[in-house]
Amino acid sequence: MTIPRLLVVDDDAETRGMLTQFLRQNGFIALPCDSESTIRDQLGSGRVDLILLDVMLGDEYGVDICKRLRHEQDVPVILVSALSADHHRMAGYEVGADDYIAKPFNPNLLLARVKAVLHRAKRSSSLTYRRSISTFRFGGWCYDAKRDEVTSPQGYQVSLSRKETALLKVFLGNPHIPLTREEINTALDVTGDGQDVGSGNPGRAIDVLVGRLRGKIEADPKIPELLRTQRGVGYVFAVDVAVEDDQ
Amino acid sequence: MTIPRLLVVDDDAETRGMLTQFLRQNGFIALPCDSESTIRDQLGSGRVDLILLDVMLGDEYGVDICKRLRHEQDVPVILVSALSADHHRMAGYEVGADDYIAKPFNPNLLLARVKAVLHRAKRSSSLTYRRSISTFRFGGWCYDAKRDEVTSPQGYQVSLSRKETALLKVFLGNPHIPLTREEINTALDVTGDGQDVGSGNPGRAIDVLVGRLRGKIEADPKIPELLRTQRGVGYVFAVDVAVEDDQ
DNA sequence: GGCGTTCTGTTACACGCTGTTACCTAGGCC
DNA sequence: GGCCTAGGTAACAGCGTGTAACAGAACGCC
Predict the structure, then answer these.
(1) What 3-state class would DSSP assign to B173?
(2) What is the pLDDT confidence band of residue B95, given thresholds at 50, 70 and 90?
(3) Could you tell me if A92 and A179 lie in one domain?
(4) What residue in B sits closest to A170 (Cα-Cα)?
(5) Could you tell me which residues are beta bridge partners of residue B33?
(6) Same domain, A20 and A97
(7) For A64-107, what is each residue's pLDDT tens digit?
(8) Protein CA at A172 to nucleotide C1' at D5, angstroms
(9) Inter-residue contact A24 to A30 (CB < 8 Å)
(10) Can you give the three-state secondary structure of A183-224, one letter per residue?
């Protein structure tokens, strides 16, 4: 594959420059833009693999631009924002952004997200989109969503607890995408009770939960092949996931 | 089957966004709406499988909208509300809502309800609607409502107590719908006297009752196939129920 | 009424699930 | 190497559920 070409869209010159430089240092072609018109120029003049789009672009919402771009083209978009409140995040997803990252961001995380989105985009073109989710296959394992059963490559059944199952589902839905503990937590909270004395969890429940899931679905939990740790970031489900419909 | 398309109707942007994202994370296509007119836009522009409708929509009662929609179309509706009082619930059912869920709701419960309603909708189109209920068939078992007899897949008779029968009926009437202990209790009370020294039951009668029913109609009560537990939620009758009319 | 049987709710205990904590190791930086 | 921080994990505690045992209620029969 050729070197990915990214547009870095931000009206603040300093941020734009920093981001551009950082991405170039990490092997990407980064093209700085500061407005919708410059984005269109770039899109018109050559291949663009991904757009990093600031949510606040002068007077205009990046969200709106994202919406328009999505209508016209199929370029993946990652929204970047200083507003980390959840509803903004929601808004980002609603308009079809492929991912969303809040400033100030961990450069490692940004890089990982960029790679993940590119990876996904590459496959989605040749993959049929999931329909009625029924069976997931990953690294020899099989998860039957209907029966809620996990089968090992050797064919024996493994019973997962409710939380473990929920965690597995989160990863199955986001293969190759580095997930922070906070994100996993949010995803699980949504699946879970929805209760809560303490809104966030101060502890390290995710770490323990990941450890427990590793104990059940990793050939050697000491050397995780599926649930990889990304130090300083979180965890990634590092294998492809094939989804089979229930016909 | 293709991915179910749901309308999320709520005038509060935050709730709407949260719900939308949650549903998307769980494999649905969720389309946010904030008014009756946007609902109609969506209904006009493509297939909609289910509407999640907030009871309070600005000045207007979601109930009224539900009533109007029901007059025109055959889309299933789940009413969502902060008003959990029973008479509101009743009002919801009267206007033809397929289910009703109170805020703040357990996300698990919501998801399960959504699936249940979709499941029901899918079958109802090919199933004649129950008339004079006579015989229920479920997972090889048969319950004759007229004679009040339960027959096992192997053909032998099983005698249920009054409460056990009532419980079975509650589940037969709500297959695939997770029921809380409170709901089951209410449903049973309705069947019973409707009296009560202590309105709610402090004890765990439902748990014991479910255990007893399991002992009679589960192949292996240790691994329930019919009466599944949903931790933190309640119980679900996890098989299809076929209803046969009395000619 | 007295008695036995069946039904049903309560209680107590067992057990599995899950979050917290504490301690240890691994990785990164000086 | 030393130091610091992030992550792995064993141990523990709290909670929800399954269920056996018990007691009282309901019912039928004499």
Answers:
(1) helix
(2) low
(3) no
(4) B25
(5) B9
(6) yes
(7) 777 777 766 778 888 787 654 444 444 444 455 677 676 666 66
(8) 30
(9) yes
(10) HHHHHHHHHCCCCCCCCCCCCCHHHHHHHHHHHHHCCCCCCC
CATH of the domain at B172: 1.10.10.10
User: Which residue from B199, B230, B69 is spatially nearest to A148, judged by alpha carbons?
Assistant: B230
Give strand pairing partners of B202: none
Of A124, A142, A167, which closes a domain?
A124
Give CA–CA dist B191/A157, Å, rounded.
41
* Confidence label for B28 from pLDDT (cuts 50, 70 and 90): confident
**B240 touching A, CB under 8 A?**
no
| Full-model pTM | 0.55
Amino acid identity of A113? Answer: R
DSSP B221: T
Which bases of chain C are contacted by protein, using any atom under 7 A from a CB?
6-12, 16-22, 27-28
Instruction: Please identify, among A124, A154, A170, the residue that sits at the C-terminal boundary of a domain.
Output: A124
Rounded CA-CA distance B201/B182 in Å is 9
B95 touches strand C (CB under 7 A): no
Tokens for B245, please give them.
């009319």
Residue-range definition of the domain harbouring residue B218:
133-245
Those residues whose C-beta lies under 8 Å from the C-beta of residue A231, and which sit 6 or more positions away, are none
With CA atoms as reference, the chain A residue closest to B103 would be: A194
Domain count, chain A: 2
Answer whether A211's CB lies under 8 Å from A163's CB. no
Give residues with Cβ within 8 angstroms of B40, minimum separation 6: none
